[in-house]
Known about the structure:
Blueprint: H1 2-9, H2 14-39, H3 54-70, E1 75-81, H4 85-91, E2 97-102, E3 122-131, H5 141-145, E4 148-158, H6 169-174, E5 179-184, E6 198-203, E7 206-212, H7 222-232, E8 245-249, E9 255-256, E10 263-268, E11 271-276
Parallel strand pairs: 1-8
Antiparallel strand pairs: 1-2, 3-4, 3-8, 3-9, 4-5, 6-7, 6-10, 10-11
Helix pairs in contact: 2-3
Amino acid sequence: MVWALFAQRLQPDPKYLGDFQVSKNIDKLAKIVFDAQINATAISQLSETESFTLEEAYRVQAKSIDMRLAAGEHRVGMKMGFTSRAKMVQMGVDDMIWGRLTNLMLVEDGGEIDISNYVHPRVEPEIAYLLKAPLSGPLSTVEAWNAVEAIAPAMEIIDSRYENFKFTVEDVVADNSSSSGFIIGPWCKPDSDIANLGMVMEFEGRAVQIGSSAAILWHPARPLAAASRMTAGDGVVRSVPRGGSSHASTRPDGVSSQSVSRSARSSASGGRWWIRVPG
Length: 279
């Protein structure tokens, strides 16, 4: 009888066995994403062979970033995605997504990028925020704005690692929300009026995108409040660190880098920032 009771106690609890299996799958998916990002190789959608929730997709993202940090990178901020209503409608969602930014993703203003480091990159005009206090949330829009030390025009190089740039919401979140590179222009005081700021992106002097900061959910400060809300319950990142940056896109879709032969340049409020693509 004693032996029987002891044997029964050794039987694995299905609940914990399930948790172990999920953890194993997250590790496996994170390694797939990490390898694709580091080696610039296209992969099939994770959702084609694995079933996972949005919450688990963020765990995959966090795990893949942990691998980058272990390799020597460090976090410098976060990005918000799906920040226009048009993009939300296109993706069939009603909320934004977010991703993590590291120091190796930063491209200096006027610097060069090597296309071979990307799968199929695209460029989007952005607004970047430099924080003077942690963006710990959830915060109201006013509270989030009070944490801003400076704002700047920016560009993001997004690069989905999925074949044919096709993915589900869970796929893109697992792939760090397509975060790949970013360029920041001159910093300005946060008292600048950016509610309806005109922005132009040019390739070799030819305007390819013209938009307004009002496309960011009618005011670009709103994604900051969303950032504090969405990261508040996350076990890995609870805030954007002091001195870190956050950015939000002013357009629903990026412009393919295949259109770029020499340089991409954007301007807003009289300022300009640019990158060059040798070729």
